[in-house]
Design brief:
Layout: E1 2-4, H1 17-22, E2 52-53, E3 56-60, H2 75-95, E4 98-100, H3 113-116, E5 117-120, E6 132-135, E7 143-144, E8 147-148, E9 157-159, E10 167-170, E11 181-188, H4 191-195, E12 199-208, E13 214-222, H5 223-226, H6 233-247, H7 252-255, E14 259-260, E15 272-273, E16 278-280, E17 286-288, H8 291-301, E18 310-311, H9 324-327, E19 335-336, H10 346-354, E20 359-360, E21 398-400, E22 407-411, E23 421-424, E24 454-459, E25 486-496, E26 499-503, E27 510-512, E28 517-518, E29 527-528, E30 558-565, H11 574-592, E31 599-604, E32 609-614, H12 625-638, E33 642-645, E34 648-652, E35 655-659, H13 674-686, E36 693-696, E37 721-723
Helix pairs in contact: 2-6, 8-10
């Protein structure tokens, strides 16, 4: 359950996901309740097929008996439409991230014997021992968090005599085709919505397969928020994504069911239950300790090589959220303060890999800025108020939210446990909203500009001389004290990674050197240039504020394959190939001038062929993927990419292979022979169809054994990996 944080944080309340999930019975397939000839192929059992994108089928469940009265004047229909639209977008995004061995045949859910059966045979000598001997006359079917599951989605059940064959009471339903997970959706005024007015939605998982992977769950939307102007469509989508991730396995009730699978194994029967997923450290902090999660946090904090567990929010004996002090802005913290300030971060995706149920597309992760490169002491209650990190603040003054999208006030909330940060102001805090600017003709002594490219800067700039001001001479640049500054909105423009320039009303563009204070012609006072916050990606300034793009409207899917060349012949190990993959991807994104939101599922094969799929993920801003692909192939022909890795230089060769764009990744074919490609091109041209796509072919050479270290302030492997 995600709570809507009222922007100053004072009205936030606790998240109730664990309480909600605890009330649910997690059903698994029960073979003992049906005779052998009734055990159809609908039973969801593990198989050895290669994982495919997780297929989520949604079903809206009407709520005629809702626990409350819904305004009948159209709000109900609008709420349903908004909920289902958000569910579709969230499910499409998940399909680009998580993959599972697909369920064979129609998906059917289990019935709960404790509900339909009043008594079972208790004599162990009876052939039908422990099978249902007496039906519950009040049985009305199955539900999942108040959503009644259609009989068509459920297995049948039978009544068993003391001896002999059973009497079939309800046959198997038809099941749901092309589904690996069923999501039921309700929009209602429930008692939980009334008790916790800040709740947007809450969810629970209710059914598991034979390997404990979640098969079904329900999201309940609190109706009053869906028709409220304070909640945007993007906010609803992100809230939905948060709840969906709970139902898919990020839950204190499900951590104990996570699987430990052999590296590289695609067969789930080779997995076993993880022996330790959560633990308490010597100070009593609850930690999630699985290996990929721990490595991801260590990389984020810049302390690779240190074994870490990721702290969970203190919510009782179980917890289903990251500790907010450490992972502010992650989609799986307990408090929500807007879609534009929330990230589907690498540490959360690492958790899903460690669940053992999913293969994960880690390239879909969004960079988490909070605490990046801050070391082992970051986020502790004992250090957050000492001034050791500028992510935290002291006092109650005005400043800038750490993403610099908003002006903020130094304050706390229940999840920060006394630590303070600049939280967005309640009204008009967004620098990136033009409508928050002063009306035409109004006095603007501080030179503020509200624009999609504007960001918040700490400054004391004014068009009038400051009392005792000595900064009008450029030779003097005294240090600024925090209490002398306040948050102001000014235009910014990235010049390169980590570098930018700023502009005030009527001023020229002025280079802003990160970590320095600068003067602006025509203004008295100084402006502080934050370091490590702005222009850290090439995704464009609008990437965090634009509405997500549905997969159905993202255009075509392309594939780019690059062979790499270096002196001599050498075979890279798996870990080295993964590191080199990251280096090539980083260089490719730098060459393209775009973010990683265009590039998905990168890999390098044993014969050193780099392959990446190209499509625009939700929220990705920039040119069409087709235009970007054409530009990349041209620039790779004109100037190869060189990547320095482990003492060797890897260079791309000329582009020379043909690739056809396709909107369906399953129809992408790799490694077509060059001759066949040429024949296909001739035929296509003869038919007058223009539909081709180039693939850059490169070759890779030797590299000594090397393990990269993520340095503070960098994205991805660094220290020995760079484009040259």
């Amino acid at each position: 359950m995600w709570l809507l944080l009222l922007l100053l944080g004072d009205a936030a309340s606790r998240c109730l996901h664990d309480e909600t999930q605890k009330s649910m019975s997690l059903l698994r397939p029960s073979l003992s309740q049906l005779p052998a000839n009734f055990r159809s192929s609908f039973l969801t059992l593990p198989d050895s097929r290669d994982p495919q994108p997780l297929r989520i089928q949604t079903c809206y469940i009407g709520d005629p008996g809702s626990e409350g009265v819904w305004d009948p004047e159209g709000d109900g229909m609008r709420g349903r439409s908004q909920a289902m639209s958000a569910v579709r977008e969230a499910a499409q995004r998940i399909q680009g991230i998580l993959a599972v061995p697909p369920v064979q045949g129609p998906l059917l859910l289990s019935r709960d014997p404790a509900q339909y059966c009043h008594a079972v045979w208790g004599d162990p000598e009876t052939p039908n021992y422990h099978r249902c001997s007496l039906l519950n006359p009040g049985y009305k079917g199955e539900s999942c968090l108040g959503a009644k599951i259609p009989d068509a989605h459920l297995r049948g059940y039978a009544l068993w005599p003391e001896q002999g064959p059973p009497q079939l009471v309800q046959p198997d339903g038809s099941g749901v085709q092309n589904a690996d997970f069923l999501l039921y959706v309700r929009v209602a005024h429930t008692s939980k919505c009334h008790q916790e007015p800040s709740i947007i939605a809450y969810a629970a998982c209710c059914q598991l397969d034979s390997e404990d992977r979640p098969l079904a769950g329900t999201i309940v939307y609190c109706a009053q928020h869906l028709t409220s102007p304070s909640l945007s469509h993007n906010d609803t989508v992100m809230a939905t994504l948060h709840e969906l991730l709970h139902t898919l396995g990020f839950s204190g009730q499900l951590f104990k069911k996570w699987r430990d699978c052999p590296s590289g194994s695609s067969e789930r029967e080779n997995c076993s239950t993880r022996q330790q997923v959560i633990m308490r450290d010597e100070w009593g902090q609850l930690l999630l300790t699985t290996p990929t999660v721990s490595h991801s946090l260590a990389k984020h904090l810049g302390v690779l090589g240190v074994s870490l567990g990721v702290p969970l929010e203190e919510e009782g004996p179980l917890s289903s959220h990251w500790e907010a002090r450490l992972l502010q802005g992650s989609i799986m913290t307990a408090i929500f303060d807007g879609a534009q300030r929330t990230r589907l971060d690498p540490i959360t995706l690492a958790a899903f890999k460690d669940s053992g149920w999913y293969q994960v597309n880690h390239s879909a992760a969004e960079e988490l800025l909070w605490g990046r490169g801050s070391g082992l002491e970051f986020g502790l209650v004992t250090t957050c108020g000492t001034g050791s990190s500028d992510f935290f603040c002291t006092g109650s003054g005005l400043g800038c939210h750490y993403l610099h999208l908003d002006k903020g006030r130094c304050s706390s909330d229940p999840m920060l446990e006394g630590c303070r940060m600049y939280k967005p102001l309640a009204n008009g805090s967004e620098c990136w909203k033009k409508e928050n600017g002063l009306p035409p003709g109004a006095k603007n002594p501080h030179g503020e500009i509200h624009h999609s490219q504007s960001r918040c800067f700490l400054a004391n700039l004014t068009s009038q001389p400051l009392p005792g001001d000595k900064t009008s001479h450029h030779s003097q640049n005294p240090p600024l004290k925090e209490e002398e500054l306040t948050g102001r909105c000014y235009l910014h423009q990235c010049t390169e990674r980590g570098a930018y320039k700023v502009q005030l009303k009527g001023s020229p563009w002025v280079p802003c050197l990160p970590g320095k204070t600068i003067q602006i012609p025509g203004y008295f006072g100084l402006l502080f240039c934050p370091w490590g916050r702005l222009c850290q990606t090439n995704e464009g300034a609008d990437a965090v504020t634009s509405p997500p793009v549905s997969l159905s409207t993202q255009g075509l899917l392309f594939q780019l394959s690059l062979g790499l060349a270096a002196p001599g012949g050498y075979t890279l190990g798996k870990e080295q190939r993964e590191e080199l993959t990251e280096a090539v991807l980083q260089a490719l994104g730098s060459r393209a001038g775009t973010g990683r939101c265009y590039f998905h599922s990168p890999s390098i094969t044993a014969n050193l062929m780099f392959t990446v799929h190209m499509w625009k993920s939700p929220g990705c801003q920039g040119p069409s993927v087709g235009m970007l692909h054409r530009a990349l192939t041209l620039t790779l022909q004109e100037k190869p990419i060189k990547v320095y890795y482990g003492g060797a230089s890897f260079t791309t060769e000329d582009s020379k292979l043909l690739v056809t764009p396709d909107s369906n990744p399953s129809r992408m074919h790799l490694g077509l022979p060059t001759g066949l490609c040429l024949i296909m091109l001739i035929l296509v041209c003869a038919l007058g169809t223009v539909a081709y796509q180039k693939r850059a072919t490169l070759q890779v050479g030797p590299s000594p054994s090397y393990h990269s270290q993520a340095l503070p302030g960098t994205r991805g492997p660094a220290g020995g990996i760079r484009e040259v």
